[in-house]
Amino acid sequence: MRLAGTLAPLFAVLAMGACAPVPGPSTIGAFDVPAACPVSASGFQANGGLARSRAALEAGTLTILAVGSSSIEGVGASQPVLGYVPLVEAGLREAFPEARITVINRGIGGETTADTVNRLQTEIDAARPHLVIWQLGTNDMLRDLTLARVVSDFDRGRDILDAAGVDVVLIDPQRLPEDTDNDGFRGRNSLLAGVSGTIAYLGTREGYAVDPRFGPMSGWAGLQGGGVGPDDLHLNDAGYACWAANTVAGLGHALR
Fold it and tell me: How many helices (H) and strands (E) does the chain have?
């Protein structure tokens, strides 16, 4: 994951806010990005948050805790370093070379929102982060849980996060292939879209940043498998790289 090309496209995104998607460069930060990946900072919504993270960067050390299910864990990547969390860490370190940035991966495959909340305090106590990236919603919908249940579990997590005084970035579910042969996945995108909209609302309500994934994935048609692996659920290397590139662009711009 050594830098292998110009960083100008990324820094242009960070500097200007990327009002429109731009074709992915051959590298962004410290990792390769597929040319078909539309990279934009415009979808990222800071919602007035991230003040503690900016202060941490200015002080020279930023610790980020990433929690959620299999896409945070990195399931589907051909090797661990090509998963979402390692790529985000590499990209942010390249974007902010003056700071020591650590992204701690505490994703556990198969978790619902409630599962993550049940261990959230323990994870925060162990990592002592300035910022928590929280991916949620996919497994809730795949297990036919209601949006009301997701919101109730989210509210329990919010109480823990607010008591800890951390910044928060919420990440919504991934999009599933429309032509999937998996009966359990077919027709689920309408439910995932609903939870995506709910997460956007919750971010605005709580002043948490939101880094959308479901909507942007509709523009990933040029990626191998649309960014999704052969199981029609977990991202492949191209999907993780595209998702991470957009997080680095959006979060990086918001932290400037």
Answer: 9, 9
Cβ neighbours for 128, distance < 8 A, ≥ 6 positions apart: 63
Are 162 and 205 in contact by the 8 Å Cβ rule? The answer is no
- The encoded tokens of residue 213 equal 């994934």
- Beta-bridged to residue 61, according to DSSP, are 100
* Distance (Å, whole) CA 29 – CA 94: 5
pLDDT, greater one: 11 or 215: 215
The first and second tokens of residue 207, run together, are 């002043």
d(CA 24, CA 154): 33
Residue 161: pLDDT band by 50, 70, 90 thresholds?
very high
Residue 186: what are its φ and ψ, rounded to 5°? Answer: -60, 130
- Mean pLDDT across the chain: 90
Count the residues in the chain: 256
67-102 pLDDT, tens per residue?
Answer: 999 999 999 999 999 999 999 999 999 999 999 999
**Alpha helices per DSSP H over the chain:** 8-16, 51-59, 70-73, 84-95, 113-127, 138-142, 147-164, 189-206, 237-255
